[in-house]
Amino acid sequence: MQSLKIIFEDGNLLIINKPPCLVVDQASTVKEQTLADILQKDMGISLFRGGIAHRLDKDTSGLILVAKTQPALENLQAQFKERKVKKEYLALVHGIIEKGGKVEAAIARNPKNREKFTVLSTSKVDYVGTFEVSSAREAVTEYEPVNNLQFTIYNLQSIFNDLNKIQMRKLHTVHYNLFTLLRCFPKTGRTHQIRVHLKYIGHPIVSDEKYAGRKMYRLDKRWCPRIFLHAARIGFYHPQTGKWMEFESELPEDLKNVLSFLSS
């Protein structure tokens, strides 16, 4: 059994600080142990998905909300549907963002790659041939910058010491050395929402294999071992008492180490 860090527990729910590299949901294509497996088999939560009330991507770390009873699960699911649950993520993105903003752009599965999602400009797109009719779903993400960051000259040269002068000049030309640490507030809960929206506005998340682009991802992986996305805060109403509750998770060590390469 993989060790799970439990932030809070009572008779109705659990708040777990999910580590990276842990798949949340069971699937026919997933051979490894999932969070749902651990909750059902090792922790005895015999609910659908082990009581997991929402989702996090495999390589995203941070807070995840789990119900221990069916009434609690239904209550929490209703809160998500009614957008009562408040979530905050920390993301390190490419480029400089100087002020906060909002992305309101519908998301649908990418017809060219079924494992990815994309922003669609229309509310409905018909895919022909091998693709079914699919409607884009409303998605809203707010964001605000925490800090603008950049590589120190020493770290840039140290990480990319195998590049020649022309290649190094190209990194500067495309402003590869500039980044922003963002707080992101998803108002809807679409798959890959934050990742897709940040890519859409030209600021992909560092080490996002699906959305940063192949060349950018290869550069990122030299110094950032996984996607820099962390579920840092969650707030909701307790399913039994109705009391508002908030929990916070600080950046894990691997992401703190990534920030050590950068300066403001």
UniProtKB/TrEMBL annotation:
<dbReference type="InterPro" id="IPR006224">
    <property type="entry name" value="PsdUridine_synth_RluA-like_CS"/>
</dbReference>
<comment type="similarity">
    <text>Belongs to the pseudouridine synthase RluA family.</text>
</comment>
<dbReference type="InterPro" id="IPR006145">
    <property type="entry name" value="PsdUridine_synth_RsuA/RluA"/>
</dbReference>
<feature type="domain" description="Pseudouridine synthase RsuA/RluA-like">
    <location>
        <begin position="12"/>
        <end position="199"/>
    </location>
</feature>
<dbReference type="GO" id="GO:0009982">
    <property type="term" value="F:pseudouridine synthase activity"/>
</dbReference>
<dbReference type="InterPro" id="IPR020103">
    <property type="entry name" value="PsdUridine_synth_cat_dom_sf"/>
</dbReference>
<protein>
    <recommendedName>
        <fullName>Pseudouridine synthase RsuA/RluA-like domain-containing protein</fullName>
    </recommendedName>
</protein>
<dbReference type="GO" id="GO:0140098">
    <property type="term" value="F:catalytic activity, acting on RNA"/>
</dbReference>
<dbReference type="GO" id="GO:0003723">
    <property type="term" value="F:RNA binding"/>
</dbReference>
<dbReference type="Pfam" id="PF00849">
    <property type="entry name" value="PseudoU_synth_2"/>
</dbReference>
<keyword id="KW-0413">Isomerase</keyword>
<dbReference type="GO" id="GO:0000455">
    <property type="term" value="P:enzyme-directed rRNA pseudouridine synthesis"/>
</dbReference>
<dbReference type="InterPro" id="IPR050188">
    <property type="entry name" value="RluA_PseudoU_synthase"/>
</dbReference>
